[in-house]
Amino acid sequence: MTSKPIDETDAVADCEQPDAVHQARLWINNGWTARVIKNEDDEGWAVEMIKDGEPEPALVGPWTMGRNKKDPKPLDVSAFNTLVKTAAEVLRRHEQQLHAQLHKSLTLATPGGRLCITLDLVADEDDPHALLAAHDEAGEQLAQVRVDAGFKLKLASASAWLADGFRRPAG
To answer: N or C, which end of the chain is more exposed by having fewer CB within 10 Å?
Structure first.
């Protein structure tokens, strides 16, 4: 019995989408599009990675020249998989940064135990605000109030809120 050697296109075929595209300068598969484009900054080439449904590329980076030093190196399964992994990591880090900007928390030690004080910014164009909340060690919410979007969560402001019986801070 002879077996056919497995090449990269066979390996991809098992898990690709029915509408997948595998061309030298365009790969579309598994929710991502890789497109090799002329680099606007110089004479070379770039590759952009776009996640399905997103208006902007998640990643744009330089792309290798081909053997003739004129045309771009063709995309292949290995390069595409690496680009998907890198672009997904860029998106994940962006989401983490956005989460860190919109969600702040700190812990207060009180005679009754530790309290987790959180500030969640609500990025609403018409009505930007934040929600200030207190949770006990078991995670049960003790209080929540709406505050201005510019409210700064610091140890002093959290302690003052606690001392004031969790009433809505002024201003």
So the answer is: N
